[in-house]
Amino acid sequence: MSGSLNRNSYFDNARFILIVLVVFGHLISPFREESHFISTVYNFIYSFHMPAFILIAGFFSKGYSKDGYMKKVLYRVLVPYITFQFFYYILYSIQGKGVTFTLMDPYWTLWFLLSLLCWNILLKVFTKFKYPLFYAVIVGMLVGYIDSIGSFLSLSRTFVFFPLFLLGFYLNENHFKFIINKKMKVLSTAAMIVILLTYYFYFPKGGRDWLIATSSYFDLGIEQLHYAMFIRLFIYILMFVITVCFLTLVPKERYFFTHLGGRTLYIYLLHGLVIKVLQSTSIFDFTITAASLFVFILTTLFISFGLASKPVITFTKPIIEMYRFISLNQRENKNSAQKLAS
Asked: Per the confidence metrics, is the pTM higher than 0.70?
């Protein structure tokens, strides 16, 4: 890599590849029990796709102390969160799932929005410590002992995944340039193959629940609770290793999909609704085998590229980026008030 890291291409490539994996993981989730191979792929993806996404989000949060930054994050996160909570409520009601509308318990994919807001707030606290990453890991391990912690306000995932966000915040371009070389690519490829094979032949029952981090240690069925935090520490190490391997393999060149890395918010918010609708039809009413993976891959690509297309962006922009209109109106009102005062 010559010169500085091409942030637009490299990080946009990473974000788009990761969002495709997110869509793929959510698409195959209901079928993971029907095929051991699909279950293995699912568990493998969940070991790094959100950790890598969170780490990159932390990397781009370096301006958290600037004036207006938190206000921007607040609008950008809470407005679509409230909007899509309502959309999910409508969809689930139509499907007869008998849900109650709430803003305290995020539906399905929306946990990330609440956690993202909290992570930015937590930066203001933990960056004041001498060893912030150490304390973030300790907190992430200890919260599992709170029996009541779970999906409420996405608190469990917020604290468990925060060390990855904080790590990303402290990384710089040189760290990424250090891992992007031919030798590291070979080692990373080999490591990921070994881990994937290990998952195939031995993956502990209940391991998925440790990866998604929504439950307390008690709910995870750990009888000897004094060992639980060390299991989570092992999960941290595993996530870190696979995440680094993935980031090593992300291409730095510009491709036909690179520009779509700037549209991941649209894919993230919309794909859940699309998948829920698809799953309510008979489109996947066939015997699930390893070969079914190709059907899921094609469907994933269709959903990902479709939701990132210009027609979809144009149609949904007023909804997803409503916060921009709110901010614009506030600025206009402020300017009008200043003119009247003068």
From this structure: yes
